[in-house]
Design a protein that fits this description.
The protein is built from 12 helices and no strands. It has one domain (about 5-220): MetI-like (MetI-like fold, Orthogonal Bundle). Helix 8 packs antiparallel against helix 11. By secondary structure, it is an all-alpha fold. The chain has helices at about 5-35, 45-50, 60-70, 75-80, 90-115, 120-125, 130-145, 145-160, 165-170, 180-190, 195-215, 220.
């Protein structure tokens, strides 16, 4: 059976994944639109920065976030001057780290969906005197819906499975920053394999359902 600390870790993980996914959809949508349509020379640079978490070891990303958000880091000094305090080892710090770490899993599917629309539907709407904002909300967003579904599912699932980044930036504080992956690690370290099986088995089932949903939503057609 699950202990109270395990239930708290599950609730915290779901809260973290939900908030991260929502923020990524808000931040990632205009970014993906720009990447899909821009001809700026900075496009490749911005695209590489967004994609960097895919190849960067999580511990490295977590370490540099810890340095930047710490008391001696520029972002840490900024948050302190704004009265927000320091973000490391807090839930807010986990959210910041998760948004950065999961960003490519949200931005890339939306970018691919926007790119697949092509110019024809948007040009047709322009001939009917639709403004750029109208074209975006009336044409681009509905046509890109499969990309948004894929992005939301991938962003949520990737955040749920985080380990290295959350360990570096959040530590392992029960009820505060201890997420599901950390709870599994704690049980394995204590040789409490029965508890670890409950949590790991749930993660395995969750991962399978995520892949099933992605294939059902036409993920392969977006790749």
């Amino acid at each position: 059976m699950l202990a109270d600390s395990d239930l708290a870790a599950i609730v915290l993980t779901l809260k973290l994944a939900s908030l991260t996914t929502l923020l990524l959809l808000i931040i990632g949508t205009p970014l993906a639109w720009w990447l899909a349509r821009s001809r700026s020379p900075l496009k490749n640079v911005i695209g590489a920065v967004v994609t960097l978490p895919l190849v960067l070891p999580p511990a490295v990303l977590g370490f540099y976030l810890l340095v930047l958000l710490g008391p001696s880091g520029p972002l840490g000094q900024l948050t302190e001057s704004l009265g927000l305090g320091l973000l490391p080892f807090t839930f807010a710090g986990l959210v910041v780290a998760s948004v950065i770490y999961s960003m490519p899993f949200v931005v890339q599917p939306i970018q691919q969906a926007f790119a697949a629309i092509g110019q024809a539907p948007l040009e047709a709407a322009a001939t009917l005197r639709a403004s750029p904002i109208d074209r975006f909300f009336s044409i681009a967003l509905p046509l890109a819906r499969p990309g948004f579904i894929t992005a939301a599912v991938l962003g949520f699932a990737h955040t749920v499975g985080e380990f290295g980044v959350v360990l570096m930036i959040g530590g392992n504080i029960p009820g505060k920053t201890q997420v599901l992956s950390m709870a599994i690690y704690n049980h394995v370290e204590a040789m409490e394999y029965a508890h670890a099986h409950w949590l790991a088995g749930g993660m395995l089932l969750f991962s399978f359902v995520v892949l099933l949903l992605l294939h059902a939503s036409g993920w392969n057609r977006l790749k």
